[in-house]
Specification:
- With 732 residues, the chain is mostly beta strands.
- It has three helices and 41 strands.
- Helix content is 2%, strand content 58%.
- The chain has a 22-stranded antiparallel beta barrel. Strands 5-11-12-9-10 form a five-stranded mixed sheet. Strands 6-7-8 form a three-stranded antiparallel sheet, covered by helices on one side.
- The longest helix has 7 residues.
- It is a multi-pass membrane protein.
- One of its GO terms (biological process) is siderophore transport.
């Protein structure tokens, strides 16, 4: 059977009407592209294969804003149209077009994902109203510790081919069945031929950035190949006494041991350094009135700093059997060092003297290590005269975190007038060299899963699966010893997909939720895991052989035990850690709408609109610090004729208002809001030669003034003002 993946030209008009809680009509009109002349378009030679057409997953060099297949949802390589959940991808082309230099930038671009800034380094990502608490790297899980995240979620984007996002619960593969999203960062692999590329750029606030990427065969027959990526970034800030720097080095070797066996080994080094700390600024004066500080204000000192340094080793062995089954054994070792020292000032300054705030001088050093194992097998089998697919897997995560504090010796320095935040007037205390008790937590998670994709009829597929998980947590939390055990927790999964025709499919899916959480009660104990159920249904379309994908989904999530902040209460003995209680009857209803890919060989588009409503059993809004609605749009178009070397692009991101209830203020509590706002950005790229291009970007085009965080410990953080950058890229 022959499939030609670069079809001949034929005009096609696309019309799809999607109904949700609001009536949405989506009309896309485009001519299916002819065989492309540029290497910026996804092009594959005609090949002879048996069964379904090959679906490429790698996005580098495709020029596309979508991917042919992804495995993050259920462990089987399925196209977006075949996956019974809301899935999105941020491709290599989109990363470069939008100049998404960090993983935080990438996630802020992904449909339905938002972030809240807790301070200069710690970001909290969310989807569908809940915090994203787990990342994956090449499919191996990496739990996020929100409290001790000193910038570890802002990695350089230079080493990634794409980022896959599955919204909704993915407990089948991750174990942590969070109803937010699973995010899988897929690293670059060696290319078949020698290639070298690099870029250099500069921007506002003295930004300097560069990277170089070299891929080369190591053997004459090309069976062994290597790739090295190095990147650096330095940037001052619009915030007083705050600047950032990062260094990244990534090396990978891919070896074809036999025609059926491939071994991939890699090592990744990341170092992030933040000089200054910046924990926001007070929103109230001591008389109860609101402050109105400029965008450079911060609760900061010149001697403060945050730093992370990590090394990740990765080994991936893949083997294909003659019966089309694929076996995989992957192991990852992570070692990280963390350091933090800063002054936190809480409370409210006097309007005249600037005094009256309480002060905490804090210093922490620590380490984290993690061992990840992942064993999988997947392939086809025959039953009742039809071909079906089965995937089996076992995973283990062994995570050790050890964070100790160092207290000041003697009397601490005077913090003076907060109104002098732009002056270097607060001395650093003398720190003890003795490590005091902090947070030492050992977490062990293991799980096994099985999932089957039954072909009930040519257009109808049923996916059923289950996972059994064990969790062990041993903790010494500031001298208090605690143990938590969860055994044989079962996470079922079911999905049904019906292909209406070659373009459209409809689906429904269900999974249960069991999600261990890091939130703490007032006595410092960890809250019990969240339990619940998640339901989803939708319609998907794949145009131009999947180069343009559209999707509409509705969903409902019900949870018990979800952490809810206790207004004005901190963890006992920890003045800077919010205390929580277990909520009841949390329910989220919402819908997602997305269109992404190539409208033509010169026109890329990524567009989405997402909305949800989240309430507890009393009908009160929960997690209101995450935007309920988001619209994201970005598009690029390469001009024709004499301007064919010029690509223009731009987009907008709109989000509804956010709020934080029961925020402490002098004399009581209040509710704070950040209204809805839209940020616009522009880009232009000119191809000077076949190998060299120059580009320019403008973010926050109209210099919108908005809060990235409002009300966290009665403080706020301004979003970044208008910024501009220019760069040059060479590829050979």
């Amino acid at each position: 059977m022959q499939y030609r993946l670069a079809p001949a030209a034929r005009p096609v008009r696309l019309r799809t009407a999607l109904l949700g809680s609001a009536f949405v009509t989506l009309i896309a009109s485009a001519e299916e592209p002819t065989q492309p002349e540029s290497d910026q378009v996804l092009t594959l030679q005609a090949i002879d294969i048996q069964g379904e057409a090959y679906q490429p997953q790698t996005t580098e060099g495709s020029g596309s804003y979508t991917t042919g297949a992804m495995s993050t949802a259920i462990g089987l390589p399925l196209s977006i149209k075949e996956t019974p959940q809301s899935v999105s991808v941020v491709t290599r082309q989109q990363i470069e077009d939008q100049e998404l230099t960090t993983t935080a930038d990438i996630l802020n671009t992904a449909p339905g994902v938002s972030y809240t800034r807790n301070d200069s380094n710690r970001l909290s990502f969310s989807a569908r109203g809940f915090t994203i608490d787990n990342f994956q790297f090449d499919g191996l899980a990496s739990p996020i510790n929100g409290l001790w995240n000193f910038g570890a979620t802002e990695m350089d984007s230079a080493i990634y081919d794409r980022v896959e996002v599955v919204r909704g619960s993915t407990g089948l593969l991750t174990g942590a069945g969070s109803p937010s999203a699973a995010v899988n960062f897929v690293r670059k692999r060696p290319l078949p031929d020698f290639a070298v590329s690099g870029s250099a750029g500069a921007g506002r606030w003295d930004e300097r950035r560069g990277d170089i990427d070299v891929s080369t065969p190591l053997s004459a027959d090309g069976r062994i190949a290597a790739r090295v990526v190095a990147a650096y970034s330095d940037k001052d800030s619009y915030v007083s006494f705050l600047d950032y720097g990062s260094r990244t080095l990534y090396g990978v070797i891919s070896s074809e041991l036999t025609p059926s066996t491939r071994l991939t080994t890699s090592i990744e080094y990341q170092k992030n350094q933040t000089n200054g700390m910046g924990s926001g600024f007070p929103l109230f004066y001591s008389d109860g009135s609101r402050t109105d500080f400029g965008r450079s204000a911060a609760n900061n000192t010149k001697w403060a700093d945050f730093g992370t340094e990590s090394t990740t080793a990765f080994v991936d062995l893949e083997h294909s059997l003659d019966n089309d089954w694929k076996l995989r054994a992957a192991y990852s070792r992570f070692d990280g060092n963390y350091r933090m020292r800063y002054l936190y000032r809480g409370g409210y300054p006097d309007r005249d003297s600037g005094r009256g705030m309480n002060a905490s001088f804090l210093k922490y050093n620590g380490e984290r290590s993690r061992d990840d194992w992942h064993l999988t097998a997947n392939g086809p089998f025959q039953l009742l005269g039809r071909s079906h697919e089965l995937a089996l897997g076992w995973m283990s995560i062994d995570d050790d975190l050890n964070i100790d504090q160092f207290r000041p010796l003697g009397a601490v320095p005077d913090t003076g007038n907060f109104m002098d935040w732009g002056m270097d007037h607060i001395a650093q205390p003398v720190w003890s060299s003795t490590r005091a008790s902090g947070d030492a937590t050992h977490t062990k998670q293991t799980g096994s899963y099985a999932v089957v994709r039954f072909s009930l009829a040519d257009p109808l597929h049923l996916i059923i699966g289950t996972r059994i998980s064990d969790w062990q947590i041993d903790q010494d939390y500031y001298g208090s010893q605690r143990k938590y055990r969860y055994h044989n927790e079962v996470t079922p999964y079911a999905g049904l997909i019906y292909d209406i025709d070659k373009t459209y499919s409809v689906y429904t899916s269900y999974t249960s939720i069991f999600n261990q959480q890091n939130a703490r009660s007032a006595d410092g104990s960890i809250l019990d895991p969240v339990t619940g159920d998640s339901y989803e249904a939708g319609i998907k379309a794949g145009y131009f052989d999947g180069r343009l994908n559209a999707a509409f989904a509705v969903y409902r999530t019900q949870q018990e035990g979800l952490a809810e902040a206790i207004p004005g209460v901190n963890v006992e003995g920890q003045a800077n850690e919010q205390a929580y209680k277990a909520g009841t009857g949390a329910r989220v209803d919402g819908f997602d709408l997305e269109l992404a890919g190539q409208l033509s060989e010169v026109w890329n588009l990524s567009a989405s609109y997402t909305h949800f409503i989240a309430r507890n059993s009393d009908g009160e809004a929960i997690n209101s610090n995450f935007p309920r609605s988001q619209a994201k749009l970005f598009s690029t178009y390469r001009l024709s004729g004499a301007l064919s070397r010029l690509t223009l692009g731009g987009g907008a991101t709109w989000q509804s208002g956010i709020s934080r209830n029961n925020v402490a203020r002098p004399g009581g509590f209040t509710d704070l809001e950040q209204g809805s706002h839209t940020l616009f950005n522009l880009m232009a790229r000119y191809q000077l030669t076949d190998y060299i291009s120059v580009s320019a970007h403008v973010d926050n085009l109209f210099d919108k003034r908005y809060y990235e965080q409002v009300g966290f410990y009665s403080q706020g953080w301004w979003g970044e003002p208008r910024s501009m950058s220019m760069g040059v890229r060479a590829s050979f």
